[in-house]
Amino acid sequence: MEPGNSTQIPEFLLLGLSEGPELQPLIFGLFLSMYLITVFGNLLIILTVSTECHLHTPMYFFLSNLSFVDICFTSTTIPKMLQNIQTQRKVITYEGCIVQVYFYLLFAGLDNFLLTVMAYDRYVAICHPLQYTVIMSPWVCALLVLVSWVLSSMYSLLQSLMILRLSFCSDLEIHHFFCEMTWLIQLACSDPFLNNMVVYFGSVIIGGVSLAGILYSYSKIVASICGISSAQGQYKAFSTCASHLSVVSLFYCSALGVYLSFTATYRSHTSAIVSVMYTVVTPMLNPFIYSLRNKDIKRALKGFLGMETSRKSPFTSS
């Protein structure tokens, strides 16, 4: 294909995790299982939080939003991958690729912002418990989620529009199971300098500010916990943010692993394999982390699933 305007490009080739035909049934079954677990687990969290009155608090409101975003995040990439394996066609149209880039960045950004908002929620709950209900009012919680959606939408729209300015040649193979933006920039025939700068500064601003907010919140939380005299009080305070801290560590460590693997192994399947941790495994594990480490969630899940015959009072200490 001759270099030209990018809108004339009919389709890209998604090479996936492996080109070996004997591995395709195994990959299909594995990813279908992980996708169903992700959707079922996060949907169960949403339904439980929605139906249990004593979980109608800011922390669980943000958790249900995070679960919804995780469902959308995996649904952006995995169904298309499964379709390509099932039909034995590795193609995705140019328009479909741009749409996938937009929604992938949208929900990845929302994950990032919601984790920051949840860190702020834990900071207020532990460091300013007496003012918690005033500071984290329903209007404030809704506003924080709305701002997260607006910022993520603006960021993903900017990056998607920047892709439209690129033109492509004959090399349309993407060594990934979805349209990863960095791969598209690398395939461009036109000068990608401006795109790289937008990606770099956008990632630094979005990711850096969010990570700084999380680190600041937890520095204040640690200082506040250290000021508690009793060991039981310290443990109870720390236990309220242990699940969130686990999810944050998993999210940012896997994202860092994806970045390092891509820069070190360009044009190989290694970066695609590593990105599975970020795009599939992390959203799948989030419900398990919160349900296994949180007594309120475990109790509510048992009640929701009919596994608890005698419902405890919502004011019972956990």
Report the biggest beta sheet as strand number plus sense, adding barrel if it closes.
3 strands, mixed
How much is the radius of gyration in Å?
A: 22 Å
Poorly predicted sequence stretches spanning 5 or more consecutive residues: 1-7, 309-318
Number of helices: 10
Strand content: under 5%
Structural class: mainly alpha
**What is the number of beta strands?**
3
Strand order of the largest sheet: 2-1-3
Shape: globular
Please state the average pLDDT score.
86
Helix content: over 70%
Termini, distance in Å?
64 Å
Question: Which keywords apply here?
Answer:
globular; 3 strands; disordered C terminus; 318 residues; 3% strand; single chain; three-stranded mixed β-sheet; mainly alpha
Short description:
The protein is an all-alpha fold and 318 residues long. The protein has helices at 24-51, 58-87, 94-127, 132-135, 138-164, 181-187, 193-226, 231-264, 270-293, 295-304, and strands at residues 11-14, 91-93, 173-174.
Descriptive overview:
This protein has 318 residues and is mainly α. It contains ten helices and three strands. It has helices spanning 24-51, 58-87, 94-127, 132-135, 138-164, 181-187, 193-226, 231-264, 270-293, 295-304, and strands at residues 11-14, 91-93, 173-174. Strands 2-1-3 form a three-stranded mixed beta sheet. Helix 3 runs parallel beside helix 7 (193-226), helix 3 (94-127) runs antiparallel to helix 8 and helix 5 runs antiparallel to helix 7. The longest helix is centred in the middle third of the chain and has 34 residues, at 94-127. The protein is globular, with a radius of gyration of 22 Å. Mean pLDDT is 86; it is low at 1-7 and 309-318.
